[in-house]
Please model this.
Amino acid sequence: MAAHLDVERIKSESRALRGTLHESLKDPTTAAVAEADTVITKFHGIYQQDDRDQREPRREARLEPAYSFMIRVRVPGGVVTPAQWLALDKIAADIANGTLRLTTRQAVQFHGVAKEDLAGLIQRIDAVLMDSLAACGDVNRNVMCHVQPEAGPVHEQALAWSKRLSEHLTPRTTAYREIWIDGEPLEKPVVEEDPIYGKTYLPRKFKAGIAIPPVNDIDIYSQDLGFIAIAEGDQLIGFNLSVGGGMGCSHGDAETFPRLADVIGFLKPDDLLNVAEAVVTIQRDFGNREQRKRARFKYTLEDRGLDWFKAELELRTGIRLEAARPFHFEHNGDRYGWQQWRDGRWQCTLFVENGRLYPQALAPLKPIVSECATDVRLTPNQNLVIAGVEQDDRERVEQALIEGGLVGDRSASAIRRHSMACVALPSCGLAMSEAERYLPDLVGLIEELAERHDIADQPITLRMSGCPNGCSRPYLAEIGLVGRAPGRYNLYLGAAFNGSRLNRLDLDNANEAAILERIDALFAGFVADRQAGEHFGDYLVRSGQVAAVGHGREVNAR
Ligand code: SF4
Model:
């Protein structure tokens, strides 16, 4: 988002997210939309981007940048029906760049869509009951939910709540249908003021999710608003409420920092929507609208304090939270391979490197999904679950996966399986360095080090972002890499394997050789000194190689 744009004014004057999109879409003189409309399209799940690899040659040729659009489809809880999956697959081939990008928030993205194809694409996802509304923008985005089956009926209950939460916090505007589905503005459009978001929506993006202990796959501590499911047997009895997590910061700006969410109490399931709405409206009313870099909910909590927040929450809901119930998390990753559901059916979790599904992977998935699965699940770590496979079909699915080369989880090292990168170059306008296109090569070099030190089987979380916004949640990785400039990264170390402790800056603006040298030395120390069952990040802290981070402000302090 261009820094000079007056985002608050654009939102306020947008007539419930209409802006001048009708005119922009009809303008044949450019592949872009009007600059102010780039703010509005985000609320519709659409980012205008340009191919940064082509910027210079096009500038020299006096051509406008190679504009195209990214569309993010909202998938609450990450569950996609076979019909929806087949539609996504076909749209990727027909309209987008042939790939599907699974995101770190269980959504799915199309890249490389031309302006004139946007409406057609959205009509096709609408036909299978999907949408992109509020997948981006200053609103609550895709609601996440744990996808693994161990929790049985508790997962079903949590998933249902994630869908209700998503529906409750979706903007009420009819602009989405009017612009993309119906195609023509109503004679006199009903410009409704949103009952939750008002005219100016939230000061910044807002993220929510539901975790089911002991798995912290959604990285609950990174969410603005989190619900930690508490169960007795197979019955969900309520949620611990967590507030104020967030990843982004700016290089060299101590006023910005990643922050772990605070767990502040327990509530009954029936209070979830009431509490969630109150948290959102508190941020709507008290969030910083003067400085976008300080506009996330985490800064509202930092500036005003948790006691103020709890009092405000109680005032708005009439609910006094009970003391948080005990829980513990073991890891923040996915469990790969086959797992059996309680009813005897199976699911298979596939490793998808950095969430990118190319045509050669999409083709063999089609018959598997349409003939053998009840649904497909998108994980919070950019992986894919083939779900609801009958015992009799398991062998057939297994063979098809092998023939289609879709068993990467079994050949990939433990480090690669725990790696994750954001999109970054060439399409993200904020990227300072490569991420998705580079991480696979860097992982190969780190794998060589791991093999040399005989720790190739050691799971270590490794996450890379092309800028400090941290879309791949790098500050919660045992090894985090955040782009500074082409070929240069900040190296962060020492987060907890279960996502409950942030990492700390170790090398500033380092190149590949310096990063590998540092990791090599730390692997040597880990092998020599680790305790039984100890994870790499915990070792770094225990051994004093990295000072544990107590507060997010310390992440960038060495
Ligand atoms: Fe773009 Fe930065 Fe997010 Fe990566 S972390 S996708 S570079 S905004």
